[in-house]
Amino acid sequence: MMSPSVLLLLGWMLVPLTMTIYFSFLRYNLLNPGTESFTGWTNYYYFVTDPSFTDALVNTISIFGGVLLITTIGGIAFSLLLDQPMWKSGLIRMLVIAPFFVMPTVSALVWKNMFMNPVNGFFGQIASFLGLQPFDFFGQAPLLSVIWIISWQWLPFATLILLTALQSLDREQLEASEMDGANSFSRFIFIILPHLARPITVAILIQTIFLLSIFAEILVTTNGGPGTATTNLTYLIYVQSLLQFDVGAGSAGGVIAIILANIVAIFLMRMIGKNLE
Amino acid sequence: MRAISNNRKAFNTAIALTLGLFMSFPIIWILILSFKSELDAIGNPLQVLLSSWTLDSFSTVQGRSDYLKHFSNSVIISLGSTFLALLVAIPSAWAMAFVPGKQTKNILMWMLSTKMLPPVGVLIPIYLLFRDYGLLDTRVGLVIILTLINLPIIIWMLYTYFKEIPVDILEAARMDGAGLKQEILYVLTPMAIPGIASTLILNIILAWNEAFWTINLTASNAAPLTAFIASYSSPEGLFYAKLSAASIMAIAPILIMGWFSQKQLVRGLTFGAVK
């Protein structure tokens, strides 16, 4: 009974993957059909030595490093707060995690036009109301603005995972340590943080998978610019293949992206695999 | 448990509520702006709040851009891909949970690994295959792609739910004289339905918000809301009231579903590693 799904996934994996690897060794441009020829490692050479590749790599790492820093620290703080006894906790939790359900194109556009726009945006309006110079977010700090928008979407995810984990923490252990005179700081360091170590790792790894493939947020806000200031690897490959029609170079980039994602995937798979024992 | 004073609770509630309002403020703000006229929407926040309310933006969005078409595309694509994937996934998750073989664990891990494949790595072949088979900008094409990319999550989620159904109950049913058909119909199915339902909801959310394939493989006909909103990036997006109205309609159904599926979401997205 497993075979239909195994066959489907096998086809989904093998057919396009083989084609990508095959194309990556071809000189193949959609604008000149019929002129495909084998070029060996040339596509890889040009893709990797192109200065925009280095920029894209740095941006990819900056985006996922920046977002992970914000979501992990913020997620720990938020989940500790939401785990406290309070009224209306269901409603409040929903308010905190709501951004996760907003589709990427909506959150990117709303932040860019309605909040970060220096003239009519919310922040600009507040700044001029206070007599300050409005800050041009996407002009002055495009990458940080993109990181901000993505963090807004993923902070709820980290919070939700850590909150779920906190709720499975043994309360008696906490109370016992309190009776033994542990203050809240040492309870956090010696009981809560070790308990959260695994969920934190899982949250980081899963976000990494998604963050390496960020696309819509960049397409909608900056188109990768100005210059290559916000171009990540995914966006660079998209430009190469669907805008410049260079299938060969785009495929070489695709193979490189797959290799990078696999390095992360191996760690994630080990974590999840342990759970199956 | 020790009793917690009401003062402490009130204090916690106040801080957490502030945090919640801060996080969801952009959503609340576009909800307000969607009921304002275009002219009022670009005023300063105080003017926005004091201006009169109107439903104009909603009707303009529908009239100018055929909003309903994109909305129904989103519904068809997310529901279609979810049901198709469930159809394939239920038997395999069932088999792996109740009749595990030596290779079950490896197969599960391998299925998971397909999810780690970055979509951009196979963008070109899929694009070219779609072009050659006339699937570009069709709803059928997107249903196929979204079925495939979410299949591993669905199988995993169903597997973790089915795994929790106690096998002893089957033996008890057999002792009481239930045949295979009755076993499935009266014992297993009722116990499996909650798990299937949460898998369904999570997958509709994921498919609804998917924004890589939906943008790259559609132009106008089959474009779901993700792609439709992306087309607002300029210059339409500077019409705040219309952008707000279009956005609110696009995210409302999912926010409501999300409300009911917070717990299942964690389980589904962490492949059972955090419950």
Give a verbal description of the structure:
The complex is a heterodimer of chains A (277) and B (275). Chain A has 277 residues and is mostly helical. Chain A has one domain: Orthogonal Bundle (MetI-like fold). In chain A, 73% of the residues lie in helices and 1% in strands. Chain A has 13 helices and 2 strands; from the N terminus they run αββαααααααααααα. Chain A has a two-stranded antiparallel sheet with strand order 1-2. In chain A, helix 3 (51-82) runs parallel beside helix 8 (142-166). The model of chain A has no long low-confidence stretch (mean pLDDT 86). By secondary structure, chain B is mostly helical. Chain B has 2 domains: 6-57, no CATH class; 66-231, MetI-like (MetI-like fold, Orthogonal Bundle), CATH 1.10.3720. Chain B is built from 15 helices and no strands. The two termini of chain B are 23 Å apart. The model of chain B has no long low-confidence stretch (mean pLDDT 85). Classes of the chains: A mainly alpha (277), B mainly alpha (275). The interface between A and B is large, with 106 and 98 residues.
